[in-house]
């Protein structure tokens, strides 16, 4: 049986935990779980030049296919004792036209929208759903 192709739309994050940088965000966590189940998973989101190597390296390690939107910034959270204590960076918007183009290019059966900080709005999701033949969540 063929695996579903899933496109997750969300900005990646960097979580600074005890001076260590870790990749985070819904695009990473959702795709990480889905690839463990054998699903072909694509993650679309902004990646800053500063953390590009780390993010792409981690995604590649787990078989997550990155659809990178180059950016000057991305969300960076400082976490102490399991709590966010500081934020820097930003969560740039994701253009719905880009989502439409990538969904077609990769042949996505399912598109999951999981914004970190409003990088894609509900109106954009409605616009996308009107023209998409697969499932959206």
What structural category arises from helix and sheet content? Answer: alpha/beta
Radius of gyration: 15 Å
Sheet with most strands: 5 strands, parallel
Query: What is the beta-strand fraction?
Result: 35-45%
Oligomer kind: single chain
Q: What percent of the residues sit in helical stretches (DSSP H or I)?
A: 25-40%
Give the overall shape.
globular
Q: What is the H-and-E element order?
A: EEEHEHEEEHEHE
Poorly predicted regions are: none
Distance between the ends:
23 Å
Counted beta strands: 9
Number of helices: 4
List its salient traits.
137 residues; alpha/beta; five-stranded parallel sheet; four-stranded mixed sheet; 4 helices; 31% helix; globular
General description of the model:
It is a single chain. The chain has helices at residues 26-36, 52-61, 96-106, 122-131, and strands at 5-9, 13-17, 20-24, 40-48, 65-71, 76-80, 83-88, 110-113, 135-136. By secondary structure, the chain is α/β, with parallel strands linked by helices. A five-stranded parallel sheet has the order 5-4-1-8-9, with helices on both faces. The mean pLDDT is 91.
Question: What can be said about this structure in brief?
Answer:
Helix content is 31%, strand content 35%.
Write the layout of secondary structure elements.
Elements: E1 5-9, E2 13-17, E3 20-24, H1 26-36, E4 40-48, H2 52-61, E5 65-71, E6 76-80, E7 83-88, H3 96-106, E8 110-113, H4 122-131, E9 135-136
Parallel strand pairs: 1-4, 1-8, 2-6, 4-5, 8-9
Antiparallel strand pairs: 2-3, 6-7
Helix pairs in contact: 3-4
């Amino acid at each position: 049986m063929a695996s579903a192709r899933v496109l997750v739309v969300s900005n990646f994050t960097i979580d600074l935990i005890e001076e260590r940088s870790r990749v985070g965000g819904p695009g990473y966590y959702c795709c990480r779980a889905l690839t463990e189940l054998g699903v072909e998973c694509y993650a679309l989101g902004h990646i800053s030049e500063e953390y590009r190597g780390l993010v792409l390296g981690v995604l590649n390690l787990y078989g997550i296919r990155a659809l990178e939107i180059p950016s000057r910034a991305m969300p960076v959270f400082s976490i102490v004792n399991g709590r966010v204590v500081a934020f820097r960076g930003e969560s740039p918007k994701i253009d719905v036209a880009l989502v439409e183009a990538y969904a077609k290019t990769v042949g996505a059966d399912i598109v999951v929208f999981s914004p970190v900080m409003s990088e894609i709005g509900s109106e954009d999701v409605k616009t996308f759903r009107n023209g998409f033949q697969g499932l959206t969540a």
